[in-house]
Design goal:
7 strands, four-stranded parallel β-sheet, about 240 residues, three-stranded parallel β-sheet
């Protein structure tokens, strides 16, 4: 299951996992876009199941995972990718902007994880991969809500890695840096050029760069990695 699979990083992750032989459930609010991605996967010989999901609604999450399990089978790999931004300085941030970002990015991811934990525990195998962000590690002015949600998701990753490790379930995170997506495409060219000066590799990342890290963490080759955050940022932030 890949949430936020209708575009950008989520779409790239879904396509990458499908190429690796996974049957992929595609979750997002826009069913028409999901069906396009599903069509791409099926045209290439893969299997895909689009399902409507609203990460801000626990009931929607429960329904989507129940429908997926019934129609498509057990979920062995979960990629928590869906997220929103509502930027603004903390001094003037509206309560709804704070709560909606936390509800979708952090609480929504947690409720998705709850839906797959029991089956994974029974099977004694699973992969949970949370898409976080460089700013969840470094901070960023004007994004207190988004940064808090992603930093919280990093902490959740570490805690669940410790809870679930004994059952061969790994829990990891991928932290993208400056990636070419719909979210960054609206930025002005001068700001993009300024950002490029801070990236040692000298280029904006692609959704496929992030998907490659996700596919690795989902593979048997990553079976001894858990509780870790992989930075995919071109060297923009180094811990």
């Amino acid at each position: 299951m890949v949430t936020g699979a209708s575009r950008g990083i989520g779409r790239a992750c879904a396509l990458g996992l499908a190429r690796g032989g996974c049957k992929v459930a595609l979750g997002a609010r826009q069913m028409d876009k999901l069906e396009e991605v599903a069509g791409e996967i099926c045209a290439a010989g893969g299997e895909a199941f689009p399902v409507s999901i609203d990460l801000a609604s626990p009931d929607s999450i429960k329904e989507a995972f129940s429908k997926t399990a019934k129609e498509f089978g057990r979920i062995d790999i979960l990629v928590n990718n869906a997220g929103i931004t509502r930027d603004g300085l903390a001094l003037r941030m509206k309560r709804d902007d704070w709560e909606s970002v936390i509800a979708t990015n952090l609480s929504g991811a947690f409720y998705c994880i709850q839906q797959v934990m029991s089956p994974m525990l029974r099977e004694r195998w699973g992969r949970i991969i949370n898409i976080v962000s460089l700013v969840g590690e470094s901070g960023n002015p004007g994004q207190a809500n988004y940064v808090a949600s992603k930093a919280g998701l990093i902490g959740l990753t570490k805690s669940l890695a410790q809870e679930l490790g004994s059952r061969t379930i790994t829990v990891n995170a991928v932290a993208p840096g400056f990636i070419e997506t719909d979210m960054t495409s609206v930025l002005k060219d001068d700001l993009k050029q300024k950002m490029l000066t801070q990236i040692p590799l000298g280029r904006i990342g692609s959704a496929e760069d992030v998907a490659a890290a996700v596919c690795f963490l989902a593979s048997d080759g990553a079976s001894y990695i858990t509780g870790h955050t992989i930075d995919v940022n071109g060297g923009m932030y180094m811990r």
